[in-house]
Every structure is written in structure tokens, then in C-alpha cells.
Amino acid sequence: MENKKIFVILLLAIALFSCKPGVEKDQTVDWNAQTDLIFSKGVKITNNNFVGTAYVSMLVDADSLNQTYVGNVTFEPGARTNWHSHPSGQIILVVNGEGYYQEKGSPKRILRKGDAVKCPPNVLHWHGASSGSDFIQLAISSSEIGPTEWMDAVSDEEYRSNE
């Protein structure tokens, strides 16, 4: 009976360790590194509200029942939004990479995977990728009070300040 228990435990251990695909015997693997995208990269943003190359995949569209919307935005290195504000505020959840967030008149903040930012209503701000990294964020806002108000582009000097 004791041999059967050992045999079952051995089989379970083999099954568990063989579930990690694509790993060679002598290969070192960081199992905490996430290389797969959580959401689709989406479509290239072609309006004048961004500097550089960025993509958006709308995950939740606002409608008459719920006016909250959620977009997955991917910024290539150096890409950023123009200065803008949201009448209902905005929440940014960093999914991957390194980026920046800055409110008008305040220092620029560095954002990394796992960070969250609560942008107050009607506060002029911008966000985007650092110069050396892609930046993926979930942008959550509402159209209940009104649409996003877009302003001027963030200058290269503003973008590079405190870099």
C-alpha cells in the first residue's frame, strides 16, 4: 500500500513538472516574466491626438446603460498622448512596459507594470511610453458628463524633462 502512495506521488510530480512547455533540460526560465499579450494590440491610432505610434483595442464601449469605456492602449517607445482632460476623470492601469504620466504643473511620474493612476476630473494631463520601452495601459473613463477634451501636443522638451 505504501508503494502505491509513493508511485502516485511520483506520477503527480512528473505530470506537474512536465506541464511547463518549451523548456529544455538545462534552460533557466523566469516563470514570472509575462511575454504574452493579455489583450489584442488593436488598430493603429491615426488621429492628431497622439505623438508617435500607438494602437487601441476597445474592450468595453460606452452605451446607454453604462457610459464607462475601457481601452487597451499600446504605445511604442516615445509615443504619447497630447495634453487632455476627462470631465469624468480617468483611471490608468499599467499592463506592461514603462511609461510616463504628468498633470499640468506637476512633475512627470514614471509608471511600470502593475501601477495604477487615478486622474481627477477636468485635470489636464498626458501619458505615454518612455523613450526606451513599449507601454501598455488600460484606460478607463466615462462619457457620462462629456467627451475627452484634447489640447496641444506634448513638446519634446516637456516629454524629456526630468528624464
Brief descriptors of the model:
about 160 residues; mainly beta; Jelly Rolls; two-stranded antiparallel sheet; 2 helices
Polypeptide structure, described:
With 163 residues, the protein is mainly β. It has one domain (40-160): Jelly Rolls. 13% of the residues lie in helices and 37% in strands. The chain contains two helices and twelve strands; from the N terminus they run αββββββββββββα. The protein has helices at 2-17, 156-160, and strands at residues 43-44, 50-51, 54-60, 68-75, 80-81, 84-85, 90-103, 109-112, 116-119, 125-129, 135-142, 149-150. Strands 1, 3, 4, 7, 8, 9, 10 and 11 form an eight-stranded antiparallel β-sheet that branches. A two-stranded antiparallel sheet has the order 2-5. Strand 7 (90-103) and strand 8 form a beta hairpin. The longest helix is centred in the first third of the chain and has 16 residues, at 2-17. Residues 5-34 have low confidence and may be disordered.
Can you summarize this structure?
Helices cover 13% and strands 37% of the residues. By secondary structure, the chain is mainly beta.
How many separate domains? 1
Structural class: mainly beta
Q: Which homologous superfamily in CATH is the superfamily?
A: Jelly Rolls
Assembly context of the chains: single chain
Which whole number gives the mean pLDDT?
83
Q: Beta fraction of the residues?
A: 35-45%
Largest sheet: 8 strands, antiparallel
